[in-house]
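Request:
You are asked to prepare a plain-text protein record giving the amino acid sequence and the backbone structure tokens, at your earliest convenience.
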Amino acid sequence: MIKLIVGLGNPGAEYAATRHNAGFWAVDAIARATQTALRHEARFHGLVARAHFQGSDVWLLQPHTFMNRSGQSVAALARFHKILPADILVVHDELDLSPGVAKLKFSGGSGGHNGLKDISAHLATPQYWRLRLGIGHPRDYALEERKADVVNYVLKPPRKEEQALVDKAIGRSLTVLQSVVQGEMERAMMELHRQLV
């Protein structure tokens, strides 16, 4: 069963609307849906809440350590509450998926994502769940935008139409959240991926 949902992003108003904060957007949506308030907890280096899903409790976390040190926050909360890596879901932006696509995955590499890389290092394993929210890749755009490097791309806000697609993907993810929290991952994956067709 999933006991901790982590949304990745960077703290601060200057990053709030950027593509790299898609994980933060998802956790904010979960908090709204469960009428839960995120509060700063210094010992966990981020914003934390305990959400309730029809009989199941799950921790929500937005690390405020900046992306490349996300593992410090995740490991601190997981150790304190004795949560195993396999019971953690990390929600993050994914360059290799188009805006509007959301996919569940267990384990795997970081794909160059510094947040995932740091979490895997701090947990000493990549064996945790990921919810990948597509943000597209700069190579998919017009020539002048393709020249932009990935760092500049993820640290800029999405276009209006892209934002609408990411928001829809987050909304679809919320519809399978009960299954996710209860550990019914096959069911959640089938439902989430079916919605893409």
